[in-house]
Each structure stands twice: as structure tokens, then as C-alpha cells.
Amino acid sequence: MRYIKLRDLEVSRIGLGAMGMSQGYTGSGTDDAESIRTVHRALELGVTLIDTAEIYGPYTNEEMLGRALKGRRDKVVLATKFGLVSHGGEGAWNLDSSPANIRTAVEGSLKRLGTDHIDLYYQHRVDPNTPIEETAGAVGELIAEGKVRAFGLSEAGPDTIRRAHAVQPVTAVQSEYSLFTRGIEERVLPVLRELNIGLVPFSPLGRGMLTGTVRSTDQFDENDFRRDNPRFTGENFRRNLALADEVKALADEVGARPGQVALAWLLAQGDNIAPIPGTKRVARVEENAAADAVTLTAEQLDKLSSLPPAAGDTHTEAQARMLER
Ligand SMILES: NC(=O)c1ccc[n+]([C@@H]2O[C@H](COP(=O)([O-])OP(=O)(O)OC[C@H]3O[C@@H](n4cnc5c(N)ncnc54)[C@H](OP(=O)(O)O)[C@@H]3O)[C@@H](O)[C@H]2O)c1
């Protein structure tokens, strides 16, 4: 495994997203034993960047990771997120990045993760009711106290990134980015390059579709959010399967798995990019980590870059309202 820097923070080029171990694709606790084995295998393979959030579960994903990382904390660059649980009474899935809420959130995350510091603490979504300067200032105080090492943003637009960075340097922006979702290329990526901010692409496998293993929505768990996601329904799904087939054809040429090619394409987009593919299975974390060794020729990269993005929105309407676009 090779390592890169997100600003001053050294991380493995391929990270591990833990969300799907407790939410999104399946319910909490579906197979924690295999999830924990997956985390341990990732660490053996040199993966250091592990990604969670207080909203995943909510809380159960951090709790499971806390159990998985017992005795292994020093091997991990641990990233979690605040701002989608309002602890003042509104509860889960309510935007709240006020300083008071961050103070409450960080104590909960530290406790559940069984640690005295978070390496990378992201605002999960921009909160229109709290000026980003106040949020950045609050995280800056946590950094000064040693509870947090570095500050991140997720799905923030260019103006918010600049304003936050002026108060507290932003180490990384985590946003959806993959062969299927290219929206940040025009306005966000140039700002990250200019300000030397790292990029952590989430859902780098197109929520599983770019691995070539999704053929029908019938194979999804009944809790799986993809069942009503626009990209996985009707005509969009059929078109996106055809796109995934094009990635698979190129992967066959390279002698790699389609998901590995999708990750290798992301790694080729810059020097400070660390995607966090999500899996709860040992065999798949092995496959994903090995993408670090896959190299694509300029011609293959061009071919992939010229594919159209996926058909259909990556979010439902309610989720899309929380994004800064
Ligand atoms: N900041 C945000 O707002 C945000 C939003 C979404 C996600 N994230 C983060 O990004 C991480 C990754 O995103 P994601 O999980 O949504 O999407 P993803 O990484 O694009 O895809 C995950 C899906 O692909 C499957 N998969 C993974 N590796 C595979 C392989 N080698 N072969 C076949 N299938 C494979 C997984 O199934 P199995 O688990 O069954 O293997 C899961 O269904 C999350 O875990 C989370 O930490 C952040």
C-alpha cells in the first residue's frame, strides 16, 4: 500500500468506508463479526484511513468500530463526522453545526470510538443556519485541545470551502466522486488544488455498481436505500448497467477487477486523493486495497474519462436538498 498526504495528514491511498456495515445497504448489526474481520484485514493490508460518522446507525457504526479498533487505535487515521444529528432535541437527520452541538457531538464520538482523539473530523453537511466561520472556529478549538487533529468538510461548495479554510485550515473535503459522479470536477477540484486541500472521494464504486456485481435490484436487502434511488430504478438502471459493462470490458483488458479500475482512475486524478470504498466483507476489502497497484495507461484513462456520468440523480430529492451544489 502506498501513502499520500491530505495536507499534513498521511493516509493510505485506499481507505475503508465503514458506513455500509451498519446503514444504507443493510441494517445495524447484520454481521458485525464479518465487519470487524474486514476492519482487521484492512489494517493488515496497510489501509489506515477508516471512515465513519455519528449518523451511521445512528451511533452503532462508531460503536462497532470502537470494538474493532480496541488495541489497534495507533494503526488508524480515524475519521468521523458531525452535523447530521442535532443533540438539542431535533435528533437525527437534522442539520446542526453550531459550536454547542459540535461540543456535544465530539464527546459522544470519542466515547463510542474508545479514543481520546479523532484524526479527521468532518462537518457532514453544510448547515445554512450556522455561519461556516463559527463551525470552523469550534473545530479549531477542539484541535487546540487535542481532541481533534484535522478539520474536514463534506459536500461543501467552493465558497464555503474558502471561508472555512480562512478560519481553520481544511485538511480534506469528502465528496461523492467516481466515474459515475463527476459533479465536483468543474468548481470544487480547482479550489482544492489551489488551497492544497486533500480529496476523499466517497461512494467511489458508484455504490457498488462499478464493481460489475450489481445486475438486478432484486439482489438488494430490503433495507437497502438503492431500492428507491433514482440511479437504480427503471431506464436509468438499465443505462447505468451498460456503463458499468464498459468499465468491465476495460478491466478485462487490464487484467483487473472493474472496481479496481474505478479506484485506479480516481487515484490518477491527483496526488492527494484517497478514496474510501465501502465494504463489510474481507474478500472485497482485499480486492479494493489491491487497486493501489493497478496502473492505467494514458489511453485507458482517457477512455474512462470520456464515459458519460451515470443517468439519474445520485440522491433522492430530500437528500439532494442537503447538498451545496
Ligand atoms: N460524506 C458523505 O456524505 C458520505 C455519503 C456516503 C458514503 N460515505 C462514505 O463513503 C464510504 C463508501 O461509500 P459507499 O459505501 O456509499 O459506496 P461505494 O464504496 O461506492 O460502494 C459500496 C457498495 O459496493 C459494494 N462493494 C464494495 N467493494 C466491492 C467489491 N470489491 N466487489 C463488489 N462489491 C463491492 C458494497 O457491498 P458489501 O459491503 O456487501 O461488500 C456496497 O454495496 C461509506 O462507507 C462512507 O464511509 C460518505
From TrEMBL:
Domain NADP-dependent oxidoreductase: start-end pairs? 13-306
Keywords from the named record: Oxidoreductase
- The organism's place on the tree of life at top rank: Bacteria
Q: What is its EC number?
A: 1.1.1.-
Composition bias (Basic and acidic residues) maps to 314-325
> Which InterPro entries does the entry mention?
AKR, Aldo-Keto_reductase, NAD(P)_OxRdtase_dom_sf, NADP_OxRdtase_dom
One term of GO molecular function: oxidoreductase activity
| Main enzyme class | oxidoreductase
Q: Where is this region: Disordered?
A: 305-325
Name of the protein in its database record: Aldo/keto reductase
